[in-house]
Design a protein that fits this description.
The protein is of the alpha/beta class and about 375 residues long. The chain has 11 helices and 12 strands. Helix 4 links the parallel strand 3 and strand 4. The chain binds pyridoxal-5'-phosphate (PLP).
């Protein structure tokens, strides 16, 4: 980490754990085989490493190994799930043309859905409640025989709220509607069993749980038909062409193993630190929390500071804190998530997302609270 900077942006990405780097190390040069080259030992060794990782990851998610499709991360997994399902529906002569999501989804879900909306599908973006959670009655009212897919994320990347996936899954299942869940912020952070929640398609990404960047997967419930979105080879059951990145896959499996091992203890510790930060922020007055406090990721806090200019606030805080005002993919635009909750553009810009992580200490949270207090006092004085 950069010296002198307190890293509180763990929703954007997490540092790759040393043990994960070590597990990947032999697979870069020493064991260089291509897992698709099954005619010699290096290739067979690489294939064995991939299949071991695949079964470990699948086991951790209570799924079958064949259900996993490795790809470059959650963005690609979302594209494969959403566009792959839509294309398969068209090809099979199916008549479902309606897609439903929450307006607070990540762009990696919204953009592929919008793309389809320009190609013969209809997109319904439901507004969440003011606390960021889906209104189940509104969702139920939107479901019909014309709906192909409901896509709702597990944990929001900005406000950390956890959606009622089991209830959504049950509503979809009763009507034969596919349920896709972008779980990029949830896997490795909260207990997660997709099949038990009625999830048909689940996206996740290693760099969100202390693994390497550039690797993730889509978990596909057996029987779901997808059209491949990357052509050029028969890897991953023909669903995702391209040479498999063995070191990254080994790293994904290791990171997930480590994340699941300390998940409960980490959530408890970070939840307590997050609560301290929230109490200190509240004590400053004119600070509102964005999103429901529960159910919420324990390592997330998102606050709106009233009566200050957001740009100035972030400029001051960023001298010592690595924080953000929203998604890393939003290019400085005021957050669409916070605006969907009813915040104005100014309020969204004056909001701060804190993402605590494995390395966060009580001293760092103390310092962050001090800085917050000093910056807000300065700016309010004018
Ligand atoms: C909820 C959510 N979905 C998708 C993504 C994109 O993930 P990746 O960087 O693996 O493509 C992110 C990361 O920013 C995210 O937070």
């Amino acid at each position: 980490m950069a010296p002198g900077v307190i890293y509180l942006d763990h929703h954007a990405t997490t540092p790759c754990e040393r043990e994960v780097v070590e597990a990947m190390a032999p697979w870069w040069s020493e064991h260089c085989g291509n897992p698709a080259s099954r005619l010699h030992r290096p290739g067979l060794e690489a294939a064995a490493a991939v299949e071991l990782a695949r079964s470990q990851i699948a086991h951790a998610l209570a799924a079958e190994p064949e259900a996993l499709v490795f790809c470059s991360g959650a963005t690609e997994a979302n594209n494969l799930a959403i566009k792959g399902l839509a294309e398969a529906e068209l090809r099979s002569g199916g008549a479902r043309r309606r897609l439903i999501c929450l307006s607070t989804e990540h762009r990696a879900v919204l953009d592929p859905l919008r793309y389809l909306a320009g190609h013969g599908f209809e997109l319904i973006c439901l507004q969440p409640q003011a606390d960021g959670l889906v209104d189940l009655e509104v969702l139920e009212g939107a479901l019909s025989d014309e709906v192909l897919l409901v896509s709702v994320m597990a944990a929001n990347n900005e406000i950390g709220v956890l959606q009622p996936l089991g209830a959504i899954g049950a509503l979809c299942r009763q009507r034969g509607i596919h349920f896709h869940c972008d779980a990029a912020q949830a896997v490795g952070h909260i207990p997660f069993q997709p099949a038990a929640l009625g999830i048909d398609l689940l996206s996740f990404s290693a760099h969100k749980f202390y693994g390497p960047k550039g690797i993730g997967a889509l978990l596909v419930r057996p029987g779901i038909k997808l059209a491949p979105q990357t052509h050029g080879g028969s890897q991953e059951h023909g669903l995702r062409a391209g040479t498999l990145p063995v070191p990254l896959i080994v790293g994904l499996a290791k990171a997930l193993e480590l994340a699941l091992a300390d998940q409960g203890e980490r959530a408890e510790r970070l939840g307590a630190l997050r609560d301290v930060l929230w109490q200190r922020a509240q004590a400053l007055g004119g600070v509102l929390r964005n999103g429901a406090m529960a159910p919420r990721l324990a390592h997330n806090l998102n606050i709106c500071v009233e009566g200050v200019d957001g740009t100035a606030l972030h400029r001051l805080l960023r001298r010592e804190l690595a924080i953000s005002s929203g998604s890393a993919c939003s290019r400085g635009e005021p957050s669409h998530v916070l605006q969907a909750l009813g915040l104005s553009r100014q309020q969204a810009a004056a909001s701060i997302r804190f993402g605590l992580g494995r390395s966060t200490t009580a001293a760092e949270i103390e310092r962050a609270a001090e800085l917050l207090s000093a910056c807000i006092t300065d700016l309010r004085r004018g």
